Task: structure prediction
Amino acid sequence: MQREPRNAWWWVPSLYFGQGLPYVTVTALSVILYKNLGISNTDIALYTSWLYLPWVIKPLWSPAVDLMQTKRRWIIAMQALIGIACGALALTLPGAHFFAATLAVFWLIAFSSATHDIAADGFYMLAQPAHAQAAFVGVRSAFFRLALITGQGGLVYLAGSLVKSSGSVTGAWATAFFLLAALFALLALYHRWALPIPDVDRPAPAAHGKASAFAETFIAFFCRPDIAIVLTFLLTFRLGEAQALKLVTPFLLDPRESGGLAMATSDVGLVYGTIGVLALTAGGIIGGIAISRHGLSAWLWPMLLAVHVPNLVFVFLATAQPVSLVVIAAAIAVEQLGYGFGFAAYLLYMIFVVDRGGNNPHKTAHYAICAGFMGLGMMLPGMASGWLQERLGYPKFFVWVCVATLPSLIVALFLKIDPAFGRKVANA
Result:
């Protein structure tokens, strides 16, 4: 029986906060944790880039999420499992073989998070009309970024402060991961109450059996006439960011004689994880509002430039190596504001690809395929970024990051987007 629908403000913010936390745990906290534990930049970039693999291959099991149980049940189950895994992560840190053990648990969190993403993104599209999806794209991005503040900012600041007071890196990070475990337990309980129960959230019918339904899902996606342009754009949009992301926190933490800024872990949590992500969040909200008023097509190029041009900030920081936290924070805020504003276009472009006039029965699985290619575009460049940085040095490495943004601008010339898509008045 369908429960009275809840206003989206009751569940969209918390749902995407819950989506962001495990993502930042795997992709960002792992980098800072291993840097604190003395792992080299080459190993950090290589092994933590492999952790993107679950997001890359999640299209392989996305039809199962469509065909088995409701998206709502998948969401709650995965949040509970992530909470258990965070507790396990805290318990493995003190061991002699912590690197291999923690990597294994990070993999579990990554697979659970990728499955949660499939269900959450599908639920987002099923539980709201098209114009509400466009209007809330900034909100979902904002609360995803708020999760980054909680992880990259609050938890990193907490861990850094505990390291200073106790002298124990493993003890400090174990405390942070236990807090994450408790938070996910609360999220799972909250969403049992808060998530609506739309009639359309049900297992997708398999007309000719589940194996045939799997095949139909992928055929329907890859047989579209513009598939080459779609996939190339998804793969190249984050080509520069994928390489920079793995090295920004090591750059901030490394000593000045190694080309870094010699910041304390707690200061990184404040400047990059809090101020930077707040700017990222503000940019995401503004981007969502702009698209809902004028449409995705009208804002595509301004948003592309807003994403890529501010990468020059890191060239400045690596060259000048400023000492002032105010200067560093201001520079990072500018870069993150631009990225947050522009990334709204990327998110809505994926919705445009899978929407097909609102008549696509495979929206959940097709969105997961798009997100999988986005993950592949993050994983492959990131794997070699540490090796590249150690040979080029930070200034030349960040110049290369700027050059790597050019392919997405070239591909964008060939995109065809309905001018009305994303505008609230056009979809209402």
